[in-house]
Amino acid sequence: MLVRDVMNKDVKTIEPDSTVQEAAAKMARYSIGSLIVIRGGSLQGIITERDIMSKAVAKALDPSETKVSDIMTKEVVMIAPERDVADAAEVMIERGIKKLPV
Q1: Looking at the 3D structure of the chain, how many domains does it have?
Q2: Which of 11, 38, 51, 66 could form a disulfide with 20 if both were Cys (CB 3.0 to 4.6 A apart)?
Q3: Residue 35 pairs with which residues in a beta bridge?
Q4: Residue 6 CB neighbour total at 10 angstroms
């Protein structure tokens, strides 16, 4: 089975200048755990629930003042849709990640 057969095709995005509060609200609205960070159609990073908890909440940063770009993961691990699902699982285990953009 290929990644394209199981991937979520309704990817939600956010701008890097958005606030962490806006990101958390968008995640809650769509019941998702991450957003792809895009500027001008170009991938900038990913922000996850884990980023919000460990990089903002745990450090007592104000989510209404903190920008997504301040806490997002900039080096995004990705996989091609033509790859096998087993390859995707291996990458996720090796990298210790729960989200794998395609």
Answers
A1: 1
A2: 66
A3: 47
A4: 11
Q: Global pTM? A: 0.87
pLDDT at 72: 97
Residue 44 lies in a domain: yes
Structure letter (DSSP) for residue 74: -
CB 4 within 8 A of CB 85: no
Tokens of 98: 């729960």
Using one digit for the tens of pLDDT, what is the confidence trace for 24-70?
A: 999 999 999 999 999 999 999 999 999 999 999 999 999 999 999 99
Asked whether the beta carbons of 9 and 89 are under 8 A apart, the reply is no
Cα–Cα distance list, 28 to 1, 48, 49, 74, 95 (Å) = 30, 12, 10, 22, 26
Return the bridge partners of 36, or none. Answer: 13, 46
Question: For residue 6, what are its two tokens?
Answer: 């199981």
pLDDT at 90 over 90: yes
The tokens for 94 are: 């090796």
